[in-house]
Amino acid sequence: MSRSAATASGYNFAYLDEQTKRMIRRGLLKAVAIPGYQVPFGGREMPMPYGWGTGGMQLTASVLGQDDVLKVIDQGADDTTNAVSIRAFFERVAGVATTTATAEADVIQTRHRIPEQPLRRGQLLVFQVPIPEPLRFIEPSEEETRLMHALEEYGVMHVKLYEDIARHGHIATTYAYPVKVDGRYVTDPSPIPKFDNPKLHMAEGLMLFGAGREKRLYAIPPYTRVESLDFEDHPFEVQQWEAPCEICGARDTFLDEVITDDRGGRMFVCSDTDYCQSRVEEVA
Amino acid sequence: MYVAVKGGEQAIANAHRWLADRRRGPRQTPELEVAQVDGQLRLAVSRVMAEGSLYDPELAALAIKQASGDMVEAVFLLRAYRTTLPRLAETLPLDTAAMRIERRISATYKDIPGGQVLGPTYDYTHRLLDFLQLANGEVEAPATADAVLESCPQVLELLDAEGLIEREEDDGAEPYDITRDPPDFPVDRATRLQMLARGDEGYLLALGYSTQRGYGRNHPFAGEIRLGMVEVEIAVEESEAPLCIGEIEISECQMINQFGGSRDAAPQFTRGYGLAFGHNERKTMAMALVDRALRAEELGETAAGPAQQAEFVLAHADSVEAAGFVSHLKLPHYVDFQSELELLRRLRREHATRCAASSDSGAGVDTDIDATTSVDQAQEQQA
């Protein structure tokens, strides 16, 4: 855990002004009250590019308290460049303590992964979301998709999944796999691998999703039913690897493929670097 | 043994240090001053102010310098700064008819009250490289008139007096503020104009051009283009008269377009409108074309061209949003890519097994054809 000495002068705690944070927290309350529903919010420009986590950052900025400990991951790792950059941003503008240990964090901002270690009660997981609308690639118009959500008209999504099966024999969606939240809203879980989808179901922590460019936020509250869409004869299943992690030997984690030479050499290692390291330390 | 890559922090710091060096360029030439950018690259400054939605020539010039001349990056810098500013007051609507004119032309009448004023324009320059500027030759001062311009009424108001053009009236509604509230499609014209005013010039130019080539044609005439200074006023409680807090340079374009009309309403010309901070003539003309194109539904026209699709046009007009989302593809996508790899390898294994089985049996059952048929059926069901 490390605490940065001084915060940037001239900016409010955690960058956003208090009125903006309040507006976002109101949006979050609504999102928690209607699990999986996309709440429009007056997203602000952040000093980082749209598409690089501005939605997640605005949510983190709005919920972060001075005594909170923050963890930031991208692709499961704390040391990927954009995770480093976002963590440095909050160290600078909020001066909060940061950590790489999942268990020690109060707020975890993530892109594309859910940590392997289950969330505990009181923990917040903030997702960065590029396209919050799960129906967007079927129907490009926002006017139309809002209507479809209102009428619970989700047949097209099943047709899309069925087409995959007809063409490939499998549902060809491997990440950002659509879920139904609390039996009502079809929701985009952000581009996490479908491997992580089961972790959304009845989780103990609160999961918040922020899409800055699209100005939408949504939430999956603790102990909420989250089902991945599937068919009786083609049940939802997650990725599997033939070999365990080469560093920690885990067989139940999401593995990154690392190319080790130009002769086809490769190895598989945990994408969640903190989880991997903690397992290595346990053994040692 | 493989060790997870560390050191991102140091790499980022070094990259930024290198960038700063590249921005500064060769040390034997003097460093570019912000005042030079402001004074000598004023059209660049205008564009950054317009798309950055902040009227501040000095900060726009700083952004251009800091961005090494990358306009989209400069717009982003200014926008990110703008967002942190407190909102002190709301201005009254600008009165562009009272503009202190620098340039004012109309393509619809040969002569107009106040006259045609060419002003500082690249129009009619022969686009020959001026090699003298390599040697920084002296430039003579402009010729000035002895008398001030007589008043320049809006050309479209002259048409309005005859009832030939649709009236535009302030309905007094509180305008939607796109910088505070998320867009809620469909949006009204005032909201559309706000989004177009900060939209990327190149994008609007291409869309406006597409309407001229037949994708949603709207028969435009440049009714009036004006450039100059307008006063910015606010209402204050203590004073009955509005208070002028300064003046800003703006460009305005009013297009006259072909008529609408019905059995009940006499035919009238319709309007397209463009407005931008600074000297931004191309932008305002393109904006006026697109504004008019987006009024297709309101004016009972068939919306067939891309420039007439409001949600498409408006959702993709902002260069800060567009550049951000395109550039995010540079971020790591190891996890999604790994997920795709895993599936693709599995599908290829299954495909190989099927091929081997069918060549063994010799029957040659082509499963692909079955699959294609099912997809067609699925699409029919959907339709």
TrEMBL record, chain A:
**Keyword entries, A-Z:** 4Fe-4S, Iron, Iron-sulfur, Lyase, Metal-binding, S-adenosyl-L-methionine
Q: What's its EC?
A: 4.7.1.1
* Pfam families, sorted: PhnJ
At the top level, the lineage of the source is Bacteria
Catalytic reaction annotation: alpha-D-ribose 1-methylphosphonate 5-phosphate + AH2 + S-adenosyl-L-methionine = alpha-D-ribose 1,2-cyclic phosphate 5-phosphate + methane + 5'-deoxyadenosine + L-methionine + A + H(+)
Cite a single GO MF annotation: lyase activity
InterPro entries, alphabetized = PhnJ (IPR010306)
Q: What does this protein do?
A: Catalyzes the breakage of the C-P bond in alpha-D-ribose 1-methylphosphonate 5-phosphate (PRPn) forming alpha-D-ribose.
The Swiss-Prot or TrEMBL record describes its family as follows: Belongs to the PhnJ family.
Q: What is the protein named?
A: Alpha-D-ribose 1-methylphosphonate 5-phosphate C-P lyase
What is the species of this protein?
Answer: Halomonas marinisediminis
Identify the taxonomic lineage of the organism of origin: Bacteria, Pseudomonadati, Pseudomonadota, Gammaproteobacteria, Oceanospirillales
